[in-house]
Specification:
The structure is a homodimer. By secondary structure, chain A is mostly helical. In chain A, 67% of the residues lie in helices and 7% in strands. Chain A is built from six helices and two strands, in the order ααααββαα. Chain A binds a DNA duplex through residues 40, 42, 57-59, 67-75, 77, 90, 93-97.
DNA sequence: TATTGTTATACTCTATAACTATA
DNA sequence: TATAGTTATAGAGTATAACAATA
């Protein structure tokens, strides 16, 4: 029985509301489990983006993080001072530079992820098999929703 | 077959990682759908807490929002200036005051939720019946995880 | 004397505008 | 002349310390 496409819009609206609240609430809890309070959210986010996308110029990184270039200049400077990223010359354009996480930067990101995963994994142990199965399927669907 | 409780811990760690990433990513998208850019995140969050928990004193509200009392003084002052909340005298202690959202404040919160729900509901229409069923069950599980 | 809330002041983060170096 | 990045400066938002009013 595939009634979902025929259901009144109200049903999806209620699901949207429930889902939004539970997702936002869990996200707040996960956010609170940050590793290193010495690095700000913006600094960690910029470093994580470099780790995901590979080397970027400051301008590209600013665009990705939706901040203005001067703001990224400061974020990059602080990460560089902490030796969490490295700058290398752009191969063809001497105005530009390429940024990448250093070994220490990668280690910090890995530790950050590890701690958050550990917090969540610990709570997953309180769930039964059926609930875990639901989450396994839901993770993929949530990912698609976010990317849409 | 209920193998989940017997599975090696690594399996839950992988699920934790996948789930964390998808939840955080969706939360970012939902956050970006804010209604009213004239009110900051902190202001909106404080107002929403008053709406959920009923009248609170400034001190209680500061504790809920994890900010210091002087910071809450400023947030409350701005909400009051915008006529989004009201202050009433505490019934027994003249040092304290009770804060509650005004009618306009409730309307603003409702509009904010409506817009976010609409964004998500629109995307839910792209899913099939099985995926919607998974999300219906997952919403409850996620809620429990967040509250744990 | 302790507690609630506010005022005074400083720090962090981000923005816009102006500047330097390179294309 | 246009573009990449930085420096100078200003505006939010939050914190700590000091203060006023009430318990």
């Amino acid at each position: 029985m595939t009634y979902a496409n025929d259901m009144p819009l109200a049903a999806d609206t209620a699901l949207a509301s429930d889902l939004r609240m539970s997702v936002m609430r869990l996200a707040r809890r996960l956010r609170a489990e940050r590793t290193d309070s010495s690095m700000s959210i913006s600094q960690l986010a910029a470093l994580a983006t470099l780790d995901r996308h590979g080397p970027l110029t400051p301008g590209e990184l600013a665009a990705h993080e939706r901040v203005q270039p001067p703001s990224m200049t400061r974020i990059v400077a602080s990460l560089e001072a902490a030796e969490l990223l490295t700058r290398t010359d752009h191969p063809t354009d001497r105005r530009q530079v390429l940024l990448a996480p250093s070994r220490a930067g990668k280690d910090l990101l890995r530790e950050d992820r590890r701690r958050r995963d550990a917090w969540l994994a610990k709570r997953l142990r309180d769930l039964d098999a059926a609930e875990l199965a639901v989450l396994r399927e839901a993770a993929a669907v949530l990912e698609r929703l976010a990317g849409a």
